[in-house]
Specification:
183 residues; alpha+beta; Jelly Rolls; 9-stranded antiparallel beta sheet; two-stranded antiparallel sheet; 5 helices; 11 strands
Length: 183
């Protein structure tokens, strides 16, 4: 269940209320089930996956990819698997824990674990959204945001792209005012 923390410390867990709070940013947040395929759940329970296992996971969830291809033109997808056993994980993640934007939508379908997206709203206030398993998020082009993992440091997420080049963070220099309270 998604958790939205506002700058004043209040929290929302109701998807409708979260959607309302994020509406000025045009962020899409939905629940997508991974289903009850036993083999898929066994793969999701593993810390790491080899390339064949990643492709098995992606193929089993491709109905969502096909839907995105038809409705919004997404062309490629991949699976990112992060866990505490990855060497230099903190260094790898450090390029996303500063406020940045992208020239392409940042689209993620969390299928295991959780992560936190922070956002700068149009009025300058900042919020943090914990996204968890079976949650889909689309952060539009140009949205000031940052990302970090919760203390479990575990996430599996399908990433969707409209182009083959992926995306690169463009740092804005805006300071994060929240205390990364969920970390």
């Amino acid at each position: 269940m998604a958790i939205l923390k506002l700058e004043d410390g209040s929290q929302h867990t109701d998807l409708n209320k979260i959607t309302q709070e994020l509406a000025p940013l045009n962020i899409q947040l939905n629940r997508w089930t991974v289903g009850d395929d036993g083999q898929l759940h066994q793969l999701l329970a593993q810390d790491s996956l080899n390339e064949d296992e990643k492709e098995q996971v992606l193929t089993s969830l491709d109905s969502y990819f096909k839907q995105l291809q038809q409705t919004t033109g997404y062309q490629t997808r991949d699976l990112i698997v992060l866990h505490p056993g990855i060497p230099n994980l903190d260094v790898m993640l450090s390029k996303f824990d500063k406020i940045h934007t992208h020239a392409e939508n940042e689209v993620r379908y969390i299928i295991d674990g959780e992560g936190i997206f922070g956002f700068v709203r149009p009025d300058g206030s900042q919020v943090e959204l914990t996204v968890q398993s079976e949650e889909y998020i689309n952060v539009p082009v140009g949205t000031e945001h940052w990302f970090y993992l919760t203390p479990a440091k575990r996430i599996k997420a399908v990433r969707y792209f409209t182009g083959t080049e992926g995306w690169t963070p463009e740092y804005t220099g805006t300071e994060i005012r929240t205390n990364k309270v969920a970390a």
